Amino acid sequence: MPAIVLFQPQIPPNTGNVGRTCAATATPLHLIEPLGFAIDDRTLRRAGLDYWPLIDLHRHADWRAFQALRRGSGRLIALSSHASQSYASFRFAVDDWLLFGRETDGLPDAVLVEADAALTIPMPQQARAGQSGVRSLNLSVSVGVVLFEALRQLGSTADAGVAGTTGSHLS
Q1: Is residue 139 part of a domain?
Q2: How many CA atoms lie within 13 A of 8 on its CB side?
Q3: What is the pLDDT of residues 45-81, one digit of tens each?
């Protein structure tokens, strides 16, 4: 099962929504500090509803602490609006670490260079130089898009009770 990694997330409801997605798919969630909020923030908990006990949650003091844990175990796949390869054309593996950056400025270059691959979610109405448009999706939406594609490729969605012939469950 791939793991979700949030690099220094700043907005509690985004992290809460990611947590709920991770709970629904039995996907581990790694948070790299510093966080832009307290982990017991009520808006974080509200977004994750009562699913927090179901989350396989790991906190790391900083980037180096996370890398020390991860070394030698799977590929680090960074998601960036500056990458050129689409997530849809990438072949995911069961032990991938899917790394997402801060809501305001993404992943720093020093972190991006350590990734084994960098992927993007193409935006049909992407902002171009001198034009208006949408640069990227919300963090929690991006996590959902990429994670569900990885699970689809790996054949894990039916096992996780996600979509398939039984329908999807939204609330």
Answers
A1: yes
A2: 12
A3: 666 567 888 899 999 999 999 999 998 899 999 999 8
